[in-house]
Amino acid sequence: MYDNPDGVMIGLEVHVQLNKLKTKVFCGCVTDYHNDPPNSHVCPVCLGLPGSMPVINKKAVEAAIKIGLALNCKVEEHTQFYRKNYYYPDLPKGFQITQYDFPISSGGYVMIEGEDGELRVGITRAHMEEDPGRLVHEGTIDKSKYTLIDYNRSGMALIEIVSDPDMRSPKEARRYLDKLRNIVGYLDVFDGNLEGAMRVDANISIMGGQRAEIKNISSFKGAERALLFEIVRQKNVLRRGGVVVQETRHFDEAREITLSMRTKEEAHDYRYFPEPDLVPLKISGWAPAIKETLPELPDARRMRFVEQYGIKDDHAKALTSELKLAIFYEDVAKKADPKTAAVWVCDVLKGELNYRDLTVEAFKKEHMLSVLELLAGRKITEDGAVDIIRTLLDKGGSPEEIIKEKGLVIVAGDIVETAALEAIVENPQAAADYQAGKVKALNSLVGVVMKKTKGGADARKVREVLIAILSDGFYPPIEREKIEKTIIKIGDVMVEVSKPIANLLKKMGYV
Amino acid sequence: MWASINELKEKIHAGSSEEVVAEYLERIGRSKLNAFISTSGESAISRAKEIDANDIEGPLAGIPVAIKDNISTRCIQTTCASNILKGYVPPYDAHVIERLKKAGAVIIGKTNMDEFAMGTSTETSFYGATKNPWDMERVPGGSSGGSAAAVAGGEAPIALGSDTGGSVRCPASFCGVVGLKPTYGVISRYGLIAYANSLEQIGPFATSVRDVTTLFDVVAGYDPRDSTSVDKEVNYSSSLENNVKGLRIGVPEEYFGEGTDEKVEKAVRDSINTLEELGAKTTTVKMPHTKYALAAYYIIAMSEASSNLARFDGMRYGLRTEDSDWHTTFSQVRASGFGDEVKRRILLGTYALSAGYHDKYYLKALKVRTLIKQDFERAFKDVDVLITPTMPYPAFKLGEKIDDPISLYLADVDTVPINLAGVPSISVPCGFSGGLPIGLQIIGKHFDEATILRAAYTFEENTDFHTKRPEGM
What we know:
The complex is a heterodimer. Chain A has 4 domains: 10-200, no CATH class; 205-267, no CATH class; 295-406, no CATH class; 415-507, no CATH class. By secondary structure, chain A is of the alpha+beta class. Chain A is elongated. The longest helix of chain A is centred in the middle third of the chain and has 20 residues, at 220-239. Chain A starts with 8 loop residues before the first strand and ends with a helix. Chain A has helices at 58-70, 170-185, 220-239, 287-293, 298-309, 313-319, 323-333, 338-356, 365-376, 382-395, 399-406, 415-426, 428-435, 441-452, 459-472, 499-507; strands at 9-17, 74-75, 78-79, 82-85, 95-98, 105-114, 117-130, 134-137, 147-150, 157-163, 198-205, 212-217, 247-252, 257-263, 273-274, 281-282, 485-490, 493-498. Mean pLDDT of chain A is 89; it is low at 474-481. Chain B is an alpha/beta fold. Chain B has a single domain (1-473), classed as Amidase signature (AS) domain (Amidase signature (AS) enzymes). Chain B is built from 15 helices and 11 strands. An 11-stranded mixed sheet of chain B has the order 1-3-2-4-6-5-10-11-9-7-8, sandwiched between helices. In chain B, strand 2, helix 4 and strand 3 (106-111) form a beta-alpha-beta unit. The termini of chain B are close together. The model of chain B has no long low-confidence stretch (mean pLDDT 96). Classes of the chains: A alpha+beta, B alpha/beta. The A-B interface holds A 44, 47-56, 83, 85, 87, 89, 92-95, 147, 149, 269, 271, 273, 276-279 and B 70-72, 78, 80, 85, 88, 90-92, 94, 189-194, 196-198, 224-228, 303-304, 306-307, 309-313, 315-317, 326, 330, 350, 353-355, 358, 362.
């Protein structure tokens, strides 16, 4: 049982940008502006030119309902848009169209891994609003002589997901954020990799005191850091006999501290009132059909993976963290051993992808299947398999080509292996010297093998084979624990090798 | 110099649109009415030439039209009669402008108005007051005073205005022309620079009901860019009829209350008698919430305005003062860009929406609005149209009320309930008082423009008030 010693209560407001919609929320401007010049995706509506009027994007409403349903929310009978009035240069109309009373959905929850087992985090509401433009400064904000405004982002559809104050630690907040990204990512409405796709404001109080709202958090890690700092700050205030005041604080990412922006007295009065240019929408009828289109969500899929494929829960969790990865795994698992597939997709492929900042789309399912098949048939080593995966990611090609190129294949009676054995048998003293610790003795054996293979073998590979035979006492390096070792006499020299190799040498007539 | 659309068509047929347009431009050029903020002479002439050369057809082919300066016109300065939008040239056309261009109309200029349509006299314009063609010392009414004066003064055969609380009907009444405020949603507001979105409609002006109807048919119709636009094409020109037999007229006594000029009341009652003689039946109806309409109207209009006008910060278009930090520049732009009446309404609207006052004012006004709508719904169960004075009195003198905002607001008493209810209403000339025109207001059910146009047309066919013209033009 987690006793929450500081009485921490955290609630989060997360903005999800529906960047996978083709057009903005109230106009026809296309949303793929990320690689285009500033102010090139704008029109009278998203520039707020006098006389322009918003028209709701039906697809955005559908996406919002989808998100509401995925967060177990109730979709309201009808929904309405409001104006939130405040002045800021990135806000071209001097108000933001958002929702107030009658949001699209409310009263949901998500399950996360809490400090002491499963934790249910309530979702107060999930509503729609428009994104403002973006302020751009030359250099840093305090040194820049001017501010530039890029309205490409203006009018992008946002969903604001407001949680109940159910989280009791920064770690739980982080897990909630990961879970949220996970769930929303399944709905094919946003691309979490694009800049500004998810933005967080955090509310935190301790010991039943007033809450501070922290703004300007740009990453999940930042959220965790800001909250950690805020707990320490609020504890210090209390320890000094002070009172935590309700205020809005700004997170300074570089210094990892929060700074006061404005207190409750200075809080904005947004003067909400219904947007007269948008009529209320009756949406209760939309939900059932949209519910039909919801994919199997992460939690359900994770449980099914454990049950259906007998894989570890950790693997199932990691594999379902992204819809594409889950689909990739499942396609592979249907044609290969599901457990081995889980290990290779989860532990190896995902790591290599993360290291390269790539998504699973960068790797072909057929290649994963080939690698698993080659491993199962003991045609390649585990190291070889890793090598193939890395090479595929870095240079492309096919597993077969890479095996050929790198000589990764293990063939019984392989030339290199045979030559290595011959070299050992013909130079038992060198072999014994190496085993006795004279590392340099290996070089002469390598030289012999290279001569025998007329320079056709990969020297690195030759070393590997020789070391495997001489150090581990066996080759290939599989099922090591099952293989007994034996000492054989070659000429006058005693050499320790594995039984299979001893047998092989006998067959070859050397022993 | 005053000509109907049909007369102009004949003139164009016999001569050219270019001649017609040039004649109007010449008249505007030497006018003392100050009905226009800007004229689009060059583009008008070249458009007229184009129409002549290509025999472009359309219900308004080659016909000059004047546009209130709060309707967005591509490549033509659109100022809302405000200093803050001086030099603003929109990159797009309002829906009504697109439709006018398609119908072959030639835009000859942008007409004067009260700044941001906030006024009843066209005196709050940054570009100076417009004068009433019937008496150069009097106001033309407002806020679409420029459009009404242009039509009454023979400077445009037809014009568009906008009506938030009477801004088409009031100047129509004061200038002795016909002005229609359609049902909310019938004409797209896309491109109309908003004063109070939930109340306003664009409306046509002309010297006759027929020409108002022709212009209305051209500009009305569905536009997906305005979510409040109704999916309904209109064609009333072909069904105008000189017939009010059996028409049930309701006369709400609340509209003949204290403050109504005796001559105005007499002219309106005489007009009702005329219609009765032509076969209409009259009953008295009760509209008990009328007395709350003005207060509710001004709270709602100002609240919406306070938000609508927030975008004018000098950052993207319009007036820009010397660059400083955001708050300074923004404050300077608004301080020097807006006139007093606009500032007053922004302040009052901001107050009405503020925490602690929102429920007391804004929300209460919305509730009153519902009651007023119900007044109309109840009345229209028993009658087809309601008839009232458009304005309680004829045009007042320039400067007479401008320093007394409350008295100016009170002038809208007979027009604002119509906007709160969203029903259509037309003002037609129905008499004179001391040489100044009086307007008759005919109000209809939602989307029943057909009936009020028929009643107005019949009245016009059987009277000659609309044929009178001001002298000295």
